[in-house]
Write a structure and sequence with these properties.
Elements lengths: L1 H16 L3 H21 L1 H14 L3 H5 L4 H44 L11 H22 L11 H19 L5 H10 L1 H14 L9 H34 L1
Helix pairs in contact: 1-9, 1-10, 2-5, 5-6, 5-7, 5-10, 6-7, 7-9, 7-10, 9-10
């Protein structure tokens, strides 16, 4: 747990120290603009999908029979919002992971972890596959659980989806330059629950107005610190273990 809070505090410190205003703003602006354009172009198709969804969950006929059109319109607009926001968040996180992460890793590593040797256990192909997997499951979580919003249970979905997305998307990229393949697997396996905890903690920031503009970069920085801290600890433990037989002899 201490590693989670340490990584979160270090990420906040880096947001203040680093001159990274440009990489905070442009990913989310690109994502907002992209989905506004897509939403405008495919508005009719999406409206048809929404109507089909309402029919599937049994409220389509009820909405069509309402005398007050604003109720039906409000519910439909709420659904648009529930789809639009996670798509913007997902796209911003992907842009950050693919295009911004290398620069952030260099900034953090050169200042806080200069002694860590770079093993380059990750790859661009691995990052792309990991990003596609993360986004695919993220979308699936939202689509499958949309009916839960009708019964009030949907409030937990954004946090669970954000926790999954964050830990799945950033745990690999945070270690890809410095750790070997084996080290990446070891750290991810031994810290599975902590990674989910960090994913949830950073995911909460995504739902706080104004602060959510900083969320993608903050999340990336937190996972970089978490990963490199654990890599430093793992290598120290391996070095100690390798020296024990010689000392005992």
């Amino acid at each position: 747990m201490s590693f989670i809070f340490k990584a979160s505090a270090s990420a906040f410190r880096d947001l203040v120290r680093f001159k990274i205003a440009w990489i905070i703003i442009w990913p989310i602006m690109v994502s907002i603009l992209l989905w506004l354009i897509i939403g405008f172009v495919f508005q009719n198709s999406f409206s048809e999908l929404v109507s089909m969804l309402f029919d599937q969950i049994g409220i389509g006929e009820w909405l069509r029979n309402l005398e007050s059109d604003w109720v039906s319109s409000a519910i439909q607009n709420l659904l648009y919002f529930l789809v639009y926001v996670p798509l913007v968040i997902m796209t911003t996180l992907m842009i950050t992971a693919i295009f911004i992460m290398p620069a952030l890793i260099n900034l953090v590593a050169n200042r806080d972890y200069p002694e860590l040797k770079r093993e380059y256990g990750g790859s661009i192909a691995g990052s792309v596959v990991n990003a596609v997997l993360a986004c695919g499951v993220f979308i699936l979580i939202w689509v499958v659980t949309l009916p839960l919003w009708a019964v009030g249970a949907g409030i937990i979905i954004p946090f669970a989806a954000a926790a999954f997305m964050n830990q799945q998307l950033f745990r690999y990229d945070a270690l890809s330059e410095h750790a070997s393949k084996q080290e990446i697997m070891t750290i991810c396996a031994e810290n599975r629950y902590s990674l989910w905890g960090l994913g949830l903690l950073t995911g909460l920031v995504q739902f706080i107005p104004i602060l959510n503009l900083l969320a993608p970069i903050y999340t990336a920085l937190a996972f970089i610190h978490f990963g490199l801290d654990h890599l430093k600890l793992l290598r120290a433990q391996n070095l100690l273990n390798s020296s024990l037989p010689a000392d005992n002899h």
